[in-house]
């Protein structure tokens, strides 16, 4: 991606922690860490070896790590990267608080009602209700935050000089997400995200409430590389599951509240 390639060209070492989600892997990083076998590799292995996969897995030293352990292990590695003379850019993608809901509120493991990754109308009402989804989501978020804050403290303690930390979601919850109906979907719930930045004062002075992910690293890169990268217009788009590249501009719907939003509070 453009961010990592830009850091690479500037002399940074790039480190990526694999989430176990194939499409989110960044195998082109200088250092690519994975605590286990991702879901694509597991599917291929099970197809090739059938029930014998478990025997092969143990013999070659690989392991299926469940979603809870994978997330916990990934976060536990942050701040432990080997010290280097050159600057380092570290990217860690974790699936939580996305389903399956495997965290208890105290940060321990919680047996999921449904182990699938499906979200929104692919999950509701087939295996749960919107109310139960929200309760499970909040519980998972509370548990995840315990590990995430610990990782932030570890990163800051290990840093030899002030560091930049960005905690950014890729989407919000899906209790009112309808994959094939944009009008019925609560866009504010789905597209409003956490975007928390620990940055130098020069960067924080340029942050604003409605900043979208398209501009976060434009500000950071402008600072780190001492250049000027122009910002883009902050807009939000949605697409149906069956038409993933047919983007619908929903910026106005994300920016305004509705009666359905009140039910989320």
Task: Tell me the layout of helices and strands.
Elements: H1 2-9, E1 13-17, E2 31-33, H2 39-49, H3 53-60, H4 67-77, E3 88-92, H5 130-158, E4 165-168, H6 187-191, E5 195-198, H7 201-204, H8 213-224, E6 237-240, E7 243-249, H9 251-255, H10 259-262
Parallel strand pairs: 1-2, 1-3
Antiparallel strand pairs: 4-5, 6-7
What report would you give on this structure?
The protein is an alpha/beta fold. 37% of the residues lie in helices and 12% in strands. The protein has helices spanning 2-9, 39-49, 53-60, 67-77, 130-158, 187-191, 201-204, 213-224, 251-255, 259-262; strands spanning 13-17, 31-33, 88-92, 165-168, 195-198, 237-240, 243-249. The strands form 3 sheets. Strands 2-1-3 form a 3-stranded parallel beta sheet. Strands 4-5 form a two-stranded antiparallel ribbon. Strands 6-7 form a two-stranded antiparallel ribbon. Helix 4 (67-77) runs parallel beside helix 5 (130-158). It is globular.
TL;DR of this structure?
This protein is of the alpha/beta class.
Strand order across the largest sheet: 2-1-3
Order of helices and strands: HEEHHHEHEHEHHEEHH
Tell me the Rg in angstroms: 20 Å
Q: Helical proportion?
A: 25-40%
Estimated share of beta-strand residues: 5-15%
Tell me how many strands there are. Answer: 7
Largest sheet: 3 strands, parallel
Low-confidence stretches: 60-64
Helical stretch tally: 10
What is the terminal separation in angstroms?
36 Å
Can you tell me the overall shape?
globular
Mean pLDDT: 86
Q: Which structural class is indicated by helix and strand composition?
A: alpha/beta
């Amino acid at each position: 991606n453009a961010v990592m390639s830009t850091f690479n060209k500037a002399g940074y070492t790039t480190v990526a922690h694999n989430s176990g989600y194939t499409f989110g892997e960044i195998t082109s990083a200088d250092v690519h860490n994975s605590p286990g076998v991702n879901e694509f590799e597991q599917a291929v292995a099970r197809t090739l070896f059938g029930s014998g996969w478990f025997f092969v897995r143990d013999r070659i030293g690989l392991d299926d790590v469940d979603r809870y352990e994978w997330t916990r292990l990934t976060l536990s590695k942050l701040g432990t990267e080997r010290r280097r003379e050159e600057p380092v850019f570290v990217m860690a993608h974790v699936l939580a608080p996305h389903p399956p809901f495997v965290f208890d509120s105290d940060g321990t493991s919680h047996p999921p009602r449904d182990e699938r990754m499906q979200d929104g109308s692919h999950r509701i009402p087939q295996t749960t209700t919107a109310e139960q989804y929200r309760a499970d989501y909040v519980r998972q978020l509370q548990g995840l935050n315990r590990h995430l804050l610990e990782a932030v403290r570890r990163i800051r303690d290990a840093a030899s000089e002030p560091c930049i930390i960005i905690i950014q979601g890729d989407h919000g919850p899906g209790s009112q997400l309808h994959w094939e109906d944009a009008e019925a979907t609560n866009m504010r719930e789905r597209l409003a995200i956490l975007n928390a930045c620990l940055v130098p004062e020069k960067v924080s002075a340029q942050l604003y409430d409605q900043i979208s992910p398209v501009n976060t690293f434009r500000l950071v890169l402008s600072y780190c590389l001492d250049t000027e990268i122009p910002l883009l217009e902050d807009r939000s788009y949605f697409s149906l599951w069956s038409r993933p590249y047919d983007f619908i501009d929903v910026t106005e719907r994300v920016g305004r509240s509705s009666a359905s939003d009140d039910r989320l509070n």
